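Q: How would the C-alpha cells look for this protein?
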Amino acid sequence: MTDGSTFSPSDDPLSPNHNLEITMEEGSENSEQLLENEGNDLENECEHVLENEGNELDNDCEQVFEIEGNDHENITDFDTTIVDGENGMSQGKNYLAPVVGMEFESYDDAYNYYNCYAKELGFAIRVKSSWTKRNSKEKRGAVLCCNCEGFKTIKEANSRRKETRTGCLAMIRLRLVESNRWRVDEVKLEHNHSFDPERAQNSKSHKKMDAGSKRKVEPALDVEVRTIKLYRTPTIDAMSYGNSNSSERENSNHMDQSKHLNLKKGDAEVIYGFFCRVQLTNPNFFYLMDLSDDGHLRNVFWIDSRSRAAYGYFSDVVLLDTVCLANKYEIPLLAFVGVNHHGQPILLGCGLVADETPETYIWLFRAWLTCMSGRPPQTIITDQCKALQSAIAEVFPRAHHRLCLSLVMQRILAKLGDLLESEPFQTALNRTVYESIKIDEFELAWEDMVQRFGIKSNECLRTLYEDRERWAPVYSKDTFFAGLSTFQQGESMNSFFNGYVHEQTSLKEFFDMYEFIVQKGYQKEAVDDLESRDTNPTLKTRCYYELQLSSLYTREIYEKFQGEVGMMSSCIGITQLHAVGPIVTYIVKEREGGDVNTRDVRNFEVMFDKAGAEVRCICSCFNFKGYVCRHAMCVLNYNGLEEIPPQYILSRWRKDFKRLYIPDLGSNNVDITNPVQWFDHLYRRALQVVEEGMSSQDHYMVAWQAFKESLNKVRLVAADKHV
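A: Here is the predicted structure in C-alpha cell form.
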C-alpha cells in the first residue's frame, strides 16, 4: 500500500564508515579536535566518511558530499574550475592552487603536485595523517598540511630548537575513489604566517622531491594542473528518437572537446559580474564553471541557499526545464524546477550548457546533486532526449525517470500535421492516453488508433510507443508526481521563465531580470502562506473529510481536494469484488458527464486494507496529485472511517508545517581550532533563531531575549579572562 512517508523528503541520517583505520605520520602531534554536539565521542584525527543511502567506500563507489556555506566545494568528474568571490586566483606562477574535485592517477602524483605548489609559494608540507582499509595496508586517504601546522608539545617546547609551528590551517584532504584515482575533497588555502622560500627549499619535503617526481608533474602542467583536468566518462553516442526536435538536437550534439558556450562580446563579464554581485548579498550563493582544456567556458551551474533549503522539503519530484534548448533560444538555459506546498513551481538551480551530450548533462547533474547533499529526487521529469536518459541513468540510477506528458502530446500532434485538425483523431488520442485505466486497455486502444488512422508506420509514434512506460499515465501509477506533471486532458506545463525569456532574449537581459523573477516567486509564496493561514475556506458539502482538511491544507491544494470531495456525488455505487484476509477489493461505479445513460458509467477498483487503514485506487490520484481521490473517500466512508488516515495527508501540503529556508545546518562537527568554522557554525545557528523569531511577535520577543542573555554570558567569559 502507498503511504505518505514514501513521498516525503528522506531524513535518513548519514552514517560513518567503520572500515577505515587511521594512522598518524611525520610528527603530527596535534590532532584536529572535533566538537560534536550530538553526543559523539571526541576522536583524534578521525576521518568520518559519510555514506549516502547505504553506499560504502568498500565498494569504491563515488561519494557525494554536501557543500557548506562559503566553502564552495564540489565533487565532479569533469574539467572544472570552481570560482568563488573570496578566494580569487592562485598565488602561484605555474601551479594552480588546489581546488576540491582535482584528481590524480596516484597518491604520489597528488603529493608531488601539492609539494611543487608549496615550493613555488614558499612553504613546506608534511603528511598530517593517513588512513587505510581495515585489515589491509592499502592507503585510502590522507591529509597533507603546511609544515607550520599545529604547535610543539610540552616536551618539544623545552628544547632549544627554534619554534617554527604557528598553528597554520592550510591543507588538502585526499581520498581514493574508484580504486585508481585520488581526489581532493577538502582544501584550506589560507596561511597564518609569511612565506620563507629559502627555508622551505631546505625542508624535508622539498629535499626528497627527486628529479623523477618533478618530471612526472611538470610536463603535464597544462593538462593536470592549469585546467584542473578531471576524469570524464566515455562518450555515449547520441541516438535519434525519430522526431524533429529530438533528432536535430541529438544529431548535432556529438562530443566535441572544443565545444564551448557561444558567448557574445561582454557575456562572460555579465555572467561573472552577476555571480559576484549576488554573493555580496547571498553569502551561500554557489556557482560552478566548467572550462575546456584551452580555457573556454563550456558549462555553468548556479544555485542559491534558499533553493538548497527548499529542496530539503520538496525533494520528491524535480522537473528539468529545457524549453530554451528545445526551441533553440539564444541563451542555452535549463532549470531544475520543483513544486512547493501551494502547488507552485519553485526554482532549484539553473545552468547554461554548451551542448546536449550525455557528458554535459552528467557534469550538470553531478554538480546539482552535490549541492543537494547527495540526495537524489524520487522522480525526475524531462523532455524526450536520449542524452538526458543516459545521464539520468548514470547519476540518478534509483530515481523514476519520466517524460513530460504535455510535451509528448505536443510532439505527437506536431508530427501528424495531416491529422492536426481531425477531431476524431484527437478524441481517440485523448481517450487512449488519458482514459485508459489498465495497461491492456491502453495497448489495445493504441493499436486500434494507429490502424484506424493509417499511422502505424509513423516513426515518431513507433519510438514513442517503445518508450511508453516513461510517459503514459497507465504505466506510472506507482510513481509520485506531486501534481508537477499533467495527467488530465487540456493541462499543459509552462517553462519556469515563461513570459520573461523569449527566443531572442540575451544573456544580459536575462541576468538583469533574474533576481526580479526569483523574488517575485518568493513574494507569491509569502502571500499564499498568509492567505492560507488567515482565511477560513468555505465548505461546499457536509462531508467531514472536507472539514478535516480545511484546517490542514494550503488554500490552493485544499481547493483542488475540495473538487474531489464534490465529485463524490457522481459515485453511484460500491460493490465488494473479493477479499483476501483484511484486504478487500471494491468496485466503485462513477457516472461521467452527468448522464444517467449506463454507457457513461465507469468502474474503478479500490483496494482497502482494514488492518492498516490503507486505501489505493486504480486511478492513482494520490500518486499523481498528492491527495486521495473521490473513489477512495467513498470506500473509506463505506467502511466507517470518519477521517482520512494520516499517511495520506502529506506534510508537503500542510499550511501548519513551518519551513525554514536557511542553509542545511548539516553536521555539528566543528574543528575547535578553526575560527572560520566557529563563525560558520554560529552564524547558521543564529540564522535559524532569526527565522523562527520572525514567525510572530511572541517568537520575536523570546528570540530577542535569548540573544541578549547569550551576549551577556559571552561577555562574562571575556571579563573572567581579564581578572
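The first strand starts at residue 15 and ends at 16.

Confidence is low (pLDDT under 50) at residues 1-93, 210-244, 250-258.

Upvote if useful.
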